[in-house]
Write a structure and sequence with these properties.
The protein is α+β, with helices and mostly antiparallel strands and 109 residues long. Helices cover 36% and strands 15% of the residues. Helix 1 runs antiparallel to helix 2 (30-42).
Length: 109
């Protein structure tokens, strides 16, 4: 990902009025910490990204920004998302859903 895109992602996720007075990590909420971690993940050049419940603790604005970046990065990378709910806004025709059956067998849907 180009540095300007990373900069835009970081600005979109963490630069808002709520964060202006928070300069110590311990003062950040769980959602704010998650935004920083997601920014760091998307700033790497990794070919595979694994996200576990990436939308939990995010407000709707940050969720939309994350969906946008997942959609734009999924063209060049493999993104594995572990979640209970797949947002309908994810724009990828190659989504593979994997569910566990009652007898612990893996079932693809």
């Amino acid at each position: 990902m180009h540095s300007f895109k990373v900069s835009n992602l970081i600005n979109s996720l963490i630069n808002n009025d709520e964060n202006k007075d928070k300069s110590i990590v311990s003062e950040l909420s769980g959602g704010e910490k998650k935004k920083i971690l997601l920014s760091m993940i998307f700033s790497t050049e990794s070919e595979v990204i694994i996200l576990d419940e990436p939308f939990a603790e995010l407000d709707s604005e940050a969720k939309n920004v994350l969906i946008h970046y997942i959609n734009s990065c999924s063209k060049d990378r493999i993104i594995i998302i572990i979640t209970h709910e797949i947002p309908k806004e994810l724009d990828n025709e190659e989504i593979i859903k994997i569910n566990m059956s009652d007898n612990d067998n893996v079932v693809t849907v």
